[in-house]
Hints:
Strand content of chain A: under 5%
Distance between the termini of chain B: 77 Å
Oligomer: heterodimer
Order of helices and strands of chain A: HHHHHH
Mean pLDDT of chain A: 89
Radius of gyration of chain A: 21 Å
Amino acid sequence: MIKIIFIITFLLSIIISNSVFAQNAEDIIKYRINIMKSLGNHISIIAANLKGKVSINEDILPHSQSMLLTLSSINIEKLFPINTKASDSLKTKTLDSVWVDKDLFQKSMSQSIKKTKDLVKAAESGNNQDIAKSLGALGKTCGACHDKFRKKKN
Amino acid sequence: MAPVTISLEKRKIKYLYIISFIFLIYTEKSLSNENGKILSYAAGCYGCHTSDPKKPFGGGYKIKTKYGTFITPNITKDITSGIGKWSKTEFIQAIKHGISPSKKPYYPAFPYSWYSNMQDSDILDIFDYLNSIPSIQKKNSSHDLKFPYRIRETLWLWRIINRSLQKKENGSLDVSYKNRGEYLIKSVVHCSACHSPRTWFSIIKDHENLNGKIETRKLLNDGAPNISKDKIEGIGSWSESDIVFFLQTGIKPNGDFAGKEMSKIIENGTSYLIKEDLEKISKYLLSNKNK
């Protein structure tokens, strides 16, 4: 009887820990999606001003700075833990190359931070042409990173 | 003294005429040179004929396809491997009909069927621009194609079949454009080369259709998405300024970015177009003609 109780307890603990583990992985995936969306929102806000859709140009600098802060504070180990890889039970657009080519991923992230610093500098100058140029350069870096590390849309 | 004063005045006027004439020619030449530069980027000449940015238009760019790898040639004015010896007529023939000065057919990886509706004046502006930039001495490499595609002569047969199938699919091959936006999209920038579905024989099914091309996704491992005015599948929810900004920077309205292939086209092509032309492209893409 004790043996049976032990086995059931053991199996239950495995099931529970696995589901907690999966739950945690899903939460991290949602969390990193929100971080990426927030970056996209900052870019949209800056772009809306550059396109002349709105004329709240004083927003360009704080949103560029927010982007720099967000990108600089990303901890790759915490935001992309190995248990958040795509699997049959876990859906994510993050490609396995994030973990296979870790150095390149880290390098791409550093490159994006460098380009965002250039954007902040341009935003400080207030010259919209320079801002558009820096934003385009940042976009190219982000796009290159997405190409290597994000699943393409159908 | 009076006759001398008159003759001096006449001479001054004569010089003024000559200077104005030279100035006019110079302005016209520099304007056409600027047009040639813009078009040589927007039409993809730079993007496809540059493998090393330090050697612009020097060729050597590899285009990987299911038929094998095409390696683009040098199109600088170099006499040995470039277009230095070409006449204007030969250049127009190459661009519009895909026939080289030695009367050999070009592979359709070179989009001459789109350029066939380009204005001769625009083609000649490109020719003048290419002849105004530094020559690059760079030997051309042969294409690395699978059998039977490597036999260039088979292209003559392909051209005949392609022409008749294209007529069947699209009606007349002679196209007239109603506005500059349509001309830039359908001829110069040749958007449908990637954004239109094709038949089994690589014929564009419908030049009016920019609903995306599945095969391109497989081939380039990238998306050639739907750019019709459909609000859900296409870009119908974008505004004109969204399209202009995207073609300048690669940034989409939602803050996302263009994929690898499209960002190259933007960087080396559409971002060179003047804003007025980009606005005309946007207007066309959001018009009822772009179903």
